[in-house]
Amino acid sequence: MSQKGNRLDEVLASLLDRRLSRNQLRSLTTVPDGMVDFSSNAYLSLSSQPAVQQSFLARLHTTAANATATNPGLLGSGGSRLLDGNSSHAESLECNIADFHRAQAGLLFNSAMDANVGLFSCVPQPGDAIVYDELIHASVHDGMRLSRASQRIPFAHSCVWQEHGSSTATTGTKCLEAVLQSLLQGPDGSLCRSGERNVFIAVEGIYSMDGDLAPLAEIVDCVERYLPRGNGYIIVDEAHSTGVLGDRGRGLVCELGLEDRVWARVLGFGKAIGCTGGIVLCSSTTRAYLINYARTLIYTTAMAFPTLASIEVAYNFITAGLAEPLLKSLRFLVQETHRLLLALCASNSAPADLLRVNTESPKSPIIPIFTSQPRNLARYCQARGFMVRPIVAPTVPKGRERVRLCLHAGNTIAEVAGLVEAVGAWLAAWRAETISREETIGREARVEARQSSAPGIAGTAKSKI
């Protein structure tokens, strides 16, 4: 290795050490066998359903048996979709997914992150503005950084109207209404009012860290009130709400009947759908534009057939209504878990900084357990066979650290009860350790006080002189 390379490693190592000193160092881990999953995003447990597994294997077998020289079958797609990686199967899948979610068209991407980066980087034109929820996903931030939009403005998380609070206490960020008003009154306000300047509004259906839902109906009303010329374009990231909300898991937009008032949706298949990949649901014109300008589509190898087949069989299972019992079970587990956690906090009079859950009923399978000791609590639960993950700054704001629970249709009541029992045992152990530590400190302080008040050897000798 060259001297220059060694110097670079030293710089990189110092940056890693700095992150370690802040207790923010990330590392890759694997899940040991036998762990109960309360961490992954596979909310419907689709990949473990025998019917889905059998359909997937049958689809692969049929394709392999019918392979030809021009359609070799199972492995790589052969190139980007604009070259040799496209297929009638991919286009048919896009149409079926768009129809299911009541959208005009859809365009597949290799991941929801690629979909967000591709969409936000190329659609906003010079002079346009992007207004986004301050807790929007990192992929949207990456897309915005690459975009040609003139302004990128956050609004306070899920805060729409000024009468509900014009800013948050923690960030001072304005609500959506105030942000839109400032755009209309700013230097380019006349262009916004006339409809010549586009404003893109980015929100999520379910926010992955808190599990809360966007107040989407209010957001749509607000945008249409202040941008009545139709130049307000709402984009909803439904990665965590697909498969969970709405009729047969169609998502938040369909649940609220807002398909014609939301400009675009980004769906991820890596959560409840149990696969990988993503799709932008949009108009046919927008789809054609993305094919021409979205770099995350143009310059990457297209999905291979096994990926397309997995998405296909998962959607067939969902559209046939076979996932409804799973959804019913999941919703029951979410409410039961929340009830048990609330009871645990109440019965132990847990300090809010040590253990707290939101009192309102969860709207999603994500339940955050707020604690000042997320890593300690997560390690304790993992040692007892429950896979939960600590979430710390900078992923969440400092002071909002938590252990994030993700419930799945495949979890059982016994597993939920065992997890809550483990959290209770951790709380008791932490309190006992704290009391012991305080008692030790108290004893040491009393001994030191007695020693300082008693005449020492030097003082005695001095008095004799």
Task: Identify the CATH homologous superfamily of the largest domain.
Answer: Type I PLP-dependent aspartate aminotransferase-like (Major domain)
Unreliable stretches (pLDDT < 50, length at least 5) are 166-170, 457-465
Q: CA-to-CA gap between the ends?
A: 72 Å
Using the CA coordinates, give the radius of gyration. 27 Å
What integer is the average pLDDT?
91
The beta-strand count equals 12
Number of domains: 2
Count of individual helical segments: 16
- Secondary-structure arrangement, i.e. CATH architecture of the largest domain: 3-Layer(aba) Sandwich
Beta-strand content: 5-15%
**Principal-axes shape call:** globular
The CATH topology of the largest domain corresponds to Aspartate Aminotransferase, domain 2
- How many strands, what sense, and barrel or not for the largest sheet? 7 strands, mixed
CATH hierarchy class name of the largest domain: Alpha Beta
Order of strands in the sheet with most strands: 2-8-7-6-5-3-4
Helical coverage, percent range:
40-55%
